[in-house]
Amino acid sequence: MRFTRTRKALIMPMLLGTSLLAGAGSAAGEETIAKLPTIEVIGTTAEALDTVPGSTIVITAEKLEATRPLSTQDALRREPGVHAVETEGYGFFPRIGIRGLNPDMSKKVMLLEDGAPIALGPYTDPAAYYHPPIERMERIDVLKGSGSLRYGPSTIGGAINYVTKNPPYEPGGSLTLTSGNQDFRSLLFDYGGTWDNATAGISYLKKTGDGTRRNSDFDVDDLVLKTGFGIGPNQFVGVKLTYYNQDSQSTYLGLTQREFAEDPRQNKAAHDRIEVERYSVDLNHELQITPDLAWRTLIYANNATRDWWREDFDFNAGTGLNEMRGTNGGRLREFTVAGVDTRLELNHLALGIHNETEFGVRLHTEEMNNQRVNGATADARSGVIREDDRREADALAAFLQNRVHFTDRLAVTPGLRVEHYRQERTIHRWDNQDVNLTNKGRNTEWVPGIGATYRAADALVLFGGVHRGFAPPRVADAIASDGVAIDLKAERSNNYEFGVRGSLPRLSYEIAAFRYDFSNQIIQASQAGGATSELTNAGETLNQGFEVGIGADLGWGFGLDANWTHVATAKLDSTRIIGGIDRKGNRLPYAPENLVNATLSYRQDNWGAGLSYQFVDEQFADFANTREGSANGMTGLIPSYSLWHLNGDYQLTERVKMFASVKNLFDKKYMASRAPQGIFPGLERLITAGVKMDF
C-alpha cells in the first residue's frame, strides 16, 4: 500500500522528531526505570473518576476475570447505556449502540485501543469489521459525556477504549486453556516481566469453533508484543506490535420468517467466508518536562485486508425461502491508516485557581482500496472485477480542554475540538465499465463542549455537561459512484447529560439523564444496515432517557451489580421525507426502550460464582415501524427477550485456577437482529470450561 506525498509530509517529521528526542534522552545517561506510557481516556484513580464531567464505565480486570465474557461485545452489553446487537454471537463484528443510537457496525462510537483508533477506516469507512479479542484486555473504559471531545472523529455516542494488558513486574506468565460445545477451543499464552530499565511482554491467542449456526466455523490468531523502557528519569518510550488473523464462515445472510420458525440454526450460505488480516504498530513517548508539565505522543500505523466472499441468493416469495444461485461476489478491501496524536498536559495556577490544561493535535491519514468481484461459482475466490475504486482521507484535528478547580469540590471543564478533513474518491471501474473519475470533499467542524462536577458530599458527586456531537459521512456516501459529490452533511447533534454518582462503604452508584438532539442524522445506504439503509439526510432526531447503575456488597460473600437503561424517546423529529413517506414521530430502529442487567455473585475464600440476568426490550427493524414480520425476515418487530448466564471459578492451588461458564443458560431461542439480510438468531447455549496455569 502506497503513501501519498501528503501522507509522508504528515507522518515523517513526527517520527523523526520523536526518534531524535529519544536519542537525546538516552545520551544523558541518567538512571532509568521501566514504564509503558499510554494515553488514558479516563484513568484509574478516584480523583480522575470524580472530575470526569460525564457518565463513565470502567470494566476492571477483576470484573473481566470473574464474568469471563466471550467477547468485548459480551462485556459491554452488561453495562448501562450500551446495546450490543448480535449477528454471530462471538463479537467478531460488534454492533454497539449507545443510548438508543443505531448500533449498525458500531459507527456512532469512537473505538480505541490504548488510545489509538482501531476502526479499519475511521474517515473512509468506520464499520467495525475488525475488533480486538477480549482475551488481550486488562480493562475497558467507556466515556459518554463531554470529555469524549478529546477523541474523534465520531464523538456522538462517546468513546470506548480497550486497555491491553501490561507485562508484570516480576517475570512470569500464564497458559489458559478453554474448551466447550460448538467445538469451541481457546489457547492463551502470556509472558512478560521487567528487567532493569526495560519491560516486555508477549501474548498469543488461538481460538476456533463451529459458531452458533451451522456452516459458521471460525479460526482466530492474535499476537501482541509490548515493550517499554526509560530514557533518563523523566522520559519513557513504549512500543506495541500486533498481528490479527480471522478466517471464518461469517455471513450477511440471515433467515426468512419461515426458515427461522423451522430451524433457527440453519445457514444456507455454506460457502461464505471472510478473512481479516491486520498488522499494527503503536509508538508511545512520554516526557515529564517538569513536575507540572507532561508531553505525550502516540504514533500509530496499521494495515488491514478484509476479503469477504458471499454467495448470491434470491428470496422466493412463493415458498418463503432463500434460494442460492450458485455464484458469489467478493468484497475485497485493503486499508492503510497512520497518524500522530501529540498532547501537552499542564497543571498550573491562574488567578490563584488550580487549572489542568490539555492541548493536543492529531494528524491522521488513511487510504482504502475497494474491489467488488463477480465469482462464477459459489466457492470462487476470483472473478470479473465489476467495481474498483480508491477512497482517501486526511485530517488535522486540534483540541483544547481546561479543567478549572474553583474549589476542592467544584471543577468546570470547557473544551473545543476542531476537525478539518479532506475526503477523496477515485473510481476506476463501476458496473463493469472503465470510468476513471475523481472527486474531493473538504469540511471543517467546530465541536465545543463544557462539563462540570461538584462533590456535594463524601458520597455524592453531581456531574453534567453539554457538547456537540459530530461524525463525518463515509467517503462512499459523500462521493457517489459516478464521482459526483453528494450534498450529504456531516452528522451533528447537541448532547446533554446530568447525573450523580458516589460510593459508600458497601454501595457504589451512578444515575444519569441524557438527551441527544440531532440537527441532522445520516441514514447510510449499506447492506450491513439491512432495512434501515436509505442514504439521506434524515434531519432532526431525538434520543432521551436515563440510566441507573449500582454495585452493592450484600455481606456474607454476596454481591449485586445491576443497571437499567430507559430510552423513553428515540424518534424521528423531522418532516423530512424518507422513502417517500413522512416518518415524523416514528421510533428509531434498534433502539429498545428498556435494557436491564443484573448479576448476583458469591465469593468465598478460593471459589466464586455468579448468576446474571439480561433483558432487552422489543425493537423495530425499520423506520416505518413495521410490526408484522416480512416474509424475507428483514422487517418487522424484534420481540423482547430475557437471558440467564452462569459462571464460576475455583482456585485449585496458588498457581492453578479452574473456571466454567454457561451463556444462555436455558437455551432461549430468540431473534437478535433482522439485519443485514434477514433474521439472525441469538447465541445458543454455550458451555465452556477451562484452566489457567501461572508460572
From TrEMBL:
Membrane topology: Multi-pass membrane protein
Record keywords: Cell outer membrane, Ion transport, Iron, Iron transport, Membrane, Receptor, Signal, TonB box, Transmembrane, Transmembrane beta strand, Transport
Listed GO biological process terms: siderophore transport
Organism: Geoalkalibacter ferrihydriticus
Cellular compartment(s): Cell outer membrane
Protein's UniProt keywords contain Transport: yes
Domain (TonB-dependent receptor plug) ranges: 50-159
A cellular-component GO term for this protein: cell outer membrane
Name under which the protein is recorded: Fe(3+) dicitrate transport protein
